[in-house]
Amino acid sequence: MHLPEIQGETVVFHGIEEQKLRHFPLFGEAVDLRGPLTNEIHFTQGLDYTIDYEMGTIKRKEKSRIPNWQEHPMYGQVGIDHRVYPNYSNARYTCTINYSNVAGVSDAIEEKIIPKLMSPLFERLNTEKDYTYVVFGDSISTGAEASCKELAYHERFAAKLRSCYPNANIQVEMKAIGGESSRRGLERIEDVISMKPDLVTIGYGMNDQNRQPDGTNAISTEEFERNLSEMVLRIRQDTTADIILITPCLPNPNWMFASENVTDYADVIRCIGRASGVAVADVQRIWLEELAAGKSHESLLLNNLNHPNDYGHKLYYSALEPFLFL
Questions:
Q1: What's the pLDDT tens digit per position in 183-196?
Q2: DSSP state of 29
Q3: What is the pLDDT of residues 237-293, one digit of tens each?
Q4: Of 153, 227, 252, 254, which sits most exposed with the smallest number of CB within 10 A?
């Protein structure tokens, strides 16, 4: 029987505390644990770590070669101001693990907002023509913290599109800017329109939700809704592009800029999708399921604040993947 392979799941170890794996490894089968950074170090089961197959957990051993995240300067801190740390990245502590999944990979998306309006996209892809995919959004959409360009979520998606539609000449145009909110994005929407795109993915919300000193958000949910709705309207008026809105992942709740109402921004995106008939790649729903299954924030965020690691970018891709099979 062929069992699904879990590739590139990330784990950050806290001393000798058990860390939950996303799925249950096949009982008794060795796993492949590597890291950090270049993944050139192969850790040894029984020497560096142990696995509880029944519980689906992995545990670092005393005197292991595996880095201990308890040595991270931000470990145990609340209300983290990353600006006071010369290096707040989790890169030195992030390990990757590959294993056979005994239970099989379930569909993490309970609700897919996939309107019939996406069908022209695939009609165009089936013809031999140039095809422009514009990536719009903040630093996550630029591919921030991906270890290489090919592992950024939009590049994974473009690569899969090319493999599914080999006759289409698919070009990726990067129009996302790090640190940007939806307000600034709307101000430069012409950057997208001028490309005459066939497909636009829009990923905002992380910077909009940022908690300000007075407890308010950088951009209110009301303005966020107006900004995204206007982006969709302008793109539809001036191009024939298909649009996919992307809900953001979750920031580290111990970060000083993480707001208590961060999930409201994903709710806004879902409402726009339903009201406007625009496709929604619901990353946040998948992210919440990862956390509910026992994954830690530091195992998903490479900068320990708000940027996904390679596994996190893979989760973003998994939210886009259903649109390949309409």
A1: 999 999 999 999 99
A2: -
A3: 999 999 999 999 999 999 999 999 999 999 999 999 999 999 999 999 999 999 999
A4: 254
pTM: 0.93
| Residue with token string 């996904």 | 308
Give 147: exposed, middle or buried? Use CB within 10 Å, 0-12, 13-18, 19+: middle
C-alpha to C-alpha distance for 112 and 270, rounded to whole angstroms: 10
Q: Which of 299, 306, 310, 303 is nearest to 284 (CA)?
A: 306
User: What does the buried/exposed string (b/e) look like for 84-108 if buried means 16 or more CB atoms within 10 Å of the residue's CB?
Assistant: eeeebbbbebbbbbebbbeeeeeeb
* CA 104 – CA 244 distance, rounded (Å): 28
pLDDT tens-place string over residues 27-54: 989 999 999 988 889 999 999 999 999 9
Q: What is the DSSP string of 89-149?
A: -SGGGEEEEEEEBSS-PPP--S--B--GGGHHHHHHHTSSSEEEEEEEESHHHHTTT-SSG
Burial class (CB in 10 A: 0-12, 13-18, 19+), 116: exposed
